[in-house]
Specification:
With about 270 residues, the protein is mainly alpha-helical. It is built from 13 helices and 3 strands. A 3-stranded antiparallel sheet has the order 1-2-3, with no helix packed on it. Helix 1 runs antiparallel to helix 2. It is globular, with a radius of gyration of 22 Å.
Length: about 270
Amino acid sequence: MNTKEQTILKICSEKLNYLNYAENTIKCYLSYIQKFLEKQEKNYQHLNAEDFTNYLQNYKFTSVSQQNQVINAMRFLYKYALNKKYNKVSFERPRKKRKLPTVYSDQFLKSKIDPIKNIKHKTILMLTYNTGMRRSEIINLKIADIDSDRMVINIRQSKNNKDRIVPLSKPLLNLLRKYYTEHNPAIYLFNGQNNLQYSPTSLQAIFKKYIDKKGKFHSLRHSFATTLHENGVDLRNIQVLLGHSSSKTTEIYTHVSTFSLNNVFLPYN
């Protein structure tokens, strides 16, 4: 990477940090921006709309998610680093695939979690299903975030840099106390073997070991929201508990919940 590429990457990095983007997002954007710059033969100051359009049209995307990430990174470079206007380049996005989330019943998850002997693994799974927390939120959760006096868990600076609280049930608090007594974690609630924090891959491995070999850890969050809806909790409250910015995101659980379906008249029922 030459000096000119390093200059533009530094500009992007400083701007991303100034705008308070998440650490993982910054790494992702800078990686895609660097790949783009390495493909260009001209100085970045002379890049034009055609260079961006041709790059995106010939990019071999591996998924819709990756395509959106690359587009976001290119838009950021185009607008903030090069100070150009969007109307001169096409950042056309792919149509989103509308897939329903995978959910597990409350009975199924309890039957899987309750017999677990490993206290750390059991606590992680129960905490996630009991609160609907994201994987990153579980990893970043600190001991000080557990408020047993108010019976809440404080989730700080999560997605979109938002704080929120979720209820802490008595059974979960008892399990957390038992886990803390046995493992005595430092700062973060869950420590890895060689790191201060647990890793995302370790969480996924725990889920596959105890819940579903073909499933994903994030399904616990989906199952939490669906269980709430099936038990009559309104969407607005579910939205707040999940930390969704838009109610449209939360509405997906009406499609996988049996709450409405059970009230539908069926022939020969």
